[in-house]
Amino acid sequence: MAERLAAAATLRAAAITAAPSARRTGRAFFLPSSSPALARVALRAAAPPRLPQRATTVRCMAASATATASDPAQLKTAREDIKELLRTTHCHPILVRLGWHDAGTYDKNIKEWPQRGGANGSLRFDAELKHGANAGLINALKLIQPIKDKYPSITFADLFQLASATAIEEAGGPKIPMKYGRVDVTGPEQCPPEGKLPDAGPSSPADHLREVFYRMGLDDKEIVALSGAHTLGRSRPERSGWGKPETKYTKNGPGAPGGQSWTPEWLKFDNSYFKEIKEKRDQDLLVLPTDAALFEDPAFKVTSDTQNVYAEKYAKDQDAFFKDYAEAHAKLSNLGAEFSPPQGFSLDDY
Ligand code: HEM
Fold it and tell me: Where is this region: Disordered (predicted)?
């Protein structure tokens, strides 16, 4: 019985792989089990990692509940490819930014999917990549497109979030309690309107941050913790208009040289962002108006009982930052997403 179930699951995976258009449209697609050609396809598709029985069952459910959910086995193997990409190209920061910009369009006041925006893979379409806030993210898409092509049974929405969480973890950050199973939007007409992501230099930075992040259903603690992602990466004047063309920390790369980083070691995830933003002692390091607000706005740096819980605390206590960051990142990665199966799944179970 177990063998027959596994064979059925394999054939279904082969059918999904062989008929991406049917998968996209959600049409049912049946295979005659007696076809020798299909049996060969099934055997080839069966070669990658052998799943325990539980995994097979969930994969069947995911494939039948909605045709666009990701295959856990493919996602897990894709994660290894992402690690290799990170090792060879040092693209951690831009992958984090990609995941954040796909999710960060979410509007909690809109109930319908995908009109509510969020982590739904819409950022793969030109219509959204052309938004001013997304300048340069086409490079992130180009980097991970070969991985998407290699694993046809994963969604863009999951791949973006997997890439971002893997980049944080591989840069030395905390393990993010991620779940997967995000469904993709199907066309550019489902992209969110421009203007949902935060500006770096608004007239009242703290008010602006609250307006944008509260719309996503996030709170002050999450705003401050998530801003700590700027411990990674650089700003480039030719993309966002912010930052210096190069500094002593960026002129030799790694990766494409140039830009201005928030921290000296901008490929290492730690709490140095908060230390540097607090001190503002190095002209070669960037402080955006929205970064500075974290130490200027009273509620971002301390609670009402004057305990240092957010920015001040993160500058002193890396463990506290890592704990809050991991929770906030996972929450961000789920914003607006439609999951199949509805509860999502963790790669730790496979
Ligand atoms: C709080 C409001 C935020 C503002 C105003 C903001 C603004 C910016 C700007 C202007 C850049 C430079 C882009 C470029 O020139 O290429 C940038 C880069 C970056 N942002 Fe943010 N950001 C915010 C929040 C976040 C969040 C929540 C995350 C992730 C959780 C994030 C992750 C990054 C990363 C990793 C980079 C570096 C990208 C690279 O080096 O290619 N940012 N951000």
Answer: 231-262
**Would you call 101 a catalytic residue per the annotation?**
yes
Other Cβ atoms within 10 Å of 89 Cβ, number:
14
Ligand 1 proximity of 200 Cβ (cutoff 6 Å):
yes
Six token digits for residue 225: 């913790």
Model confidence over 337-347: pLDDT tens digits? Answer: 999 999 999 99
Ligand 1 centroid–CA 176 distance in Å is: 19
Q: What is the pTM of this model?
A: 0.84
Residue 98 pLDDT more than 50?
A: yes
DSSP per position, 128-196: HHTSGGGTTTHHHHHHHHHHHHH-TTS-HHHHHHHHHHHHHHHTT-PPP---B-BPPP-SGGGSPPS--
Q: Give the residue from 160, 104, 156 showing the smallest Cα distance to 133.
A: 104
Taking the CA of residue 96 as reference, the ligand 1 atom at the shortest distance is: 35
Q: How far apart are CA 19 and CA 30, in angstroms?
A: 10
Q: Is the CB of 94 under 6 A from ligand 1?
A: yes
Task: Specify the 3-state DSSP secondary structure of 57.
Answer: helix
Instruction: Tell me, using a 6 A CB cutoff, whether residue 10 lines ligand 1.
Output: no
Which residues does 216 contact at the CB level (< 8 Å), separation at least 6? Answer: 104, 106, 107, 108, 332, 335
